[in-house]
Amino acid sequence: MGKIYNKNTFLLLFVIAAISLNLRLGITSVGPLMDSIRTSLSLSNAQASLLTTVPVLCMGIFASLATVLNKKYGSKFTLILMLAVLGLATALRGFLPGFSTLLITAFLIGLAIAVLGPTMSAVIKKYFPGHAAIAIGISTFFMSMGSAASAALTGIFFEVSDSYMFALAIWAVFGLFGVLVVAFVLRTGASSTLPKQNVTEVKYNFPSPWKQFTPYLFMLFYALQAALYFSTITWLVPMSVENGMTMIQGGMLLSAVMSVQVIFNLLLPIMMEKYPARRNWIYFILVSGTIATLLFWTGDHTLMWIGAFMMGIPLGGLYSAALMLPLDETVTADGANSWTAMMQTGGCILGGLFPFVIGFIYDGTQNHNYTMSILLAIYASAFILITIIGNKKEKNYDDYIVKPSDN
Fold first, then answer.
1. How far apart are the C-alpha atoms of 151 and 153, rounded to whole Å?
2. Which of 202, 263, 274, 318 falls 20 to 30 Å from 289 in CA-CA distance?
3. What is the arithmetic mean of pLDDT over 201-211?
4. Phi/psi at 167 (5° precision)
5. Is the model's pTM score more than 0.85?
6. 124 Cβ partners below 8 Å, 6+ apart?
7. What is the pLDDT of residues 227-286, one digit of tens each?
């Protein structure tokens, strides 16, 4: 395999970090301002939740677009284009007021993230043979750093500026930063000196993931983790305010969740690579999340803080585990791209509906006990599903090798 850690690989990790910072900012920055946006624009809870639901649905609907763009234009152009779309959409929130602007920009942000995720998975699979867990850890670490920063600072930006538009749009600077980094640092194709997979001399002809059973299990698992993640970042602050906290305190509570998430986004892939019994790790994560939800349900502020720190474990760990699943089961960059795109397609469509469902139920009941019940049901379902999926299985790919013609 050869030495993979050199100047060029560290530059690639820097590129991955710059892209990853942007992958949740346009979504997580909405949560701390949910009540303020809803009040300013006279929205129902269900309408306000669409600002989270729409981009997540787009992340699913347009995930397969990554495969098309990568094949036609290459990974570098695709990354630059989508980062530019993401940055411009975020910036527009500061110039054009209104709910329609927020919905349109939410759509564009979701579209960009939908393509960026699978494209990065393909790059990681290609340039980090046997060490994908480390690159995934770097990616999820910086994605969580961006989430934690937006959770902690968006409310402060709003208090200082007295404008939800400014508080949302300020995060566009990271999109511009990502464009510059990819344009001037990333080297692909013939100009790249990064090591690639040893299997590049062998051509494979794998069936589409849509024609296999295992990818559907991965899709459902991704859907459950997406439901937990986006429901939590959407409704944690409103639930905190309902229990007597201020918006700033609720934002700091969400920031605590994201800070712990940062640690587990980085730690879990490394531990899964060193101790590959992934099912046991995920059991631990799910139990932690279940306890955290029960603690938060009490409404006691001290227990809520303890629960918030514990809640960062599933929000960080489950996403990393979900990304590792298709990388463990595929042998080529194209395979990782197609499996990840499929997993994200169905997973985001299913999981992205939950914040809206919770908002709709809350509009009718004015009671977040139903929210907590839904979250606990998701944890129970994930526990059953990962039991079915099990640990990583060694496979023989020889039957899929394309034999050279005899001519």
1. 6
2. 274
3. 69
4. -65, -30
5. no
6. 16, 132, 135, 136, 139, 327, 336
7. 998 888 888 888 888 888 887 888 788 888 888 887 777 777 677 767 667 788 889 889
Query: What are 149-182's pLDDT values in tens digits?
Result: 887 788 888 888 888 899 999 999 999 999 999 8
Sequence letter at residue 306: I
